[in-house]
Amino acid sequence: MRTAAGPVTASFNVVDSATYGVAMPIAVRFSAPVLDRAAAERALSVRTSTPTEGGWAWLDDREVHWRPREYWQPGMTVTVTARLYRVPLGGGALGALDLTSTFTIGRAASVRADASTHRFEVIRDGRQVYDFPASFGVDGEPGQMTRSGVLVVTEKQATAVLSDPKYGYRNVSVPWAVRMSDDGGLVYGNAAITAELGRRNVTHGAIALSPDDAKQYFDEAQVGDPVEVTGSGVALSAKDDARCDWAFDWPSWQARSALR
Q1: Pure H helices in the chain
Q2: How does pLDDT run across 153-208, given as a tens digit for each residue?
Q3: CA angle 120, 125, 126 (to 5 degrees)
Q4: Range 250-255 contact pairs with CB under 8 angstroms and sequence separation of 24 or more
Q5: Where are the transmembrane segments (predicted)?
Q6: What are the b/e assignments for 215-250, b being 16+ CB within 10 Å?
Q7: Which tens digit of pLDDT belongs to each residue from 22-41?
């Protein structure tokens, strides 16, 4: 916990004029722990071009997120503002500057990924555009099972380098990686297990497709798209990753506001 007074800066996860998927949360990250969360939250606002129910939730003492109760409506414009300049944030600390960003929500796209049927369906505007065979985290191994719940695309990499010494691999390059978290939430191409796709779950938690199918999904995916995983037997929770916004039901999300 920070005790010395000083300026506290903030940053957004959203970029001005960018376009995001319908599950995109807004994150405000502070440079130091916020002692007076209520004061910080009162300085934050979200305006939408279409009336949208949503709210702030603190995920830890440096990060607060805003998400809609349901997915965003496609095509809407969202403006987030943080009027933090010289706002007392507790312990003598003051907000360092004001921030604002306006972004757009793109088309309605999502993934339905079922670990029990080993299928990976891509849905756009209510219509299935792809149905791929897939392999998920190993069944019966809680540490490796793909978490069931709503994950959110955070970045795309044409080539990703994966390491997990616990499971005996380091610096393994994989193609067409779409990341949803930093701890195994990943869709990628894996030619080595082509025979298992659509049949068995053999990964260490990521979702594997054939390289050709992974490329098609890579081209389709957008940051902020939801990936709805079912059938794994282990649910996504706040303990799994900071990007767990949709793991909370609405009353639990609201309870994390400092103003309730």
Answers
A1: 37-42, 211-220, 250-254
A2: 999 999 998 877 776 777 889 999 999 986 668 999 999 999 999 999 999 899 99
A3: 65
A4: 250/69, 253/55, 253/57, 253/67, 254/55, 254/57
A5: none
A6: ebbbebbbbbbbbbbebbebebeeebbebbbbbbee
A7: 999 999 999 999 999 999 99
Query: What is the per-residue pLDDT for 233?
Result: 85
Instruction: Give the type of residue at 177.
Output: A
The reported pTM is: 0.93
Residue type, 12: F
Amino acid, res. 167: Y
Token output for 143: 């540490």
> Which of 156, 145, 133, 146 has its CA nearest to residue 209?
133
Q: How many helices (H) and strands (E) does the chain have?
A: 3, 20
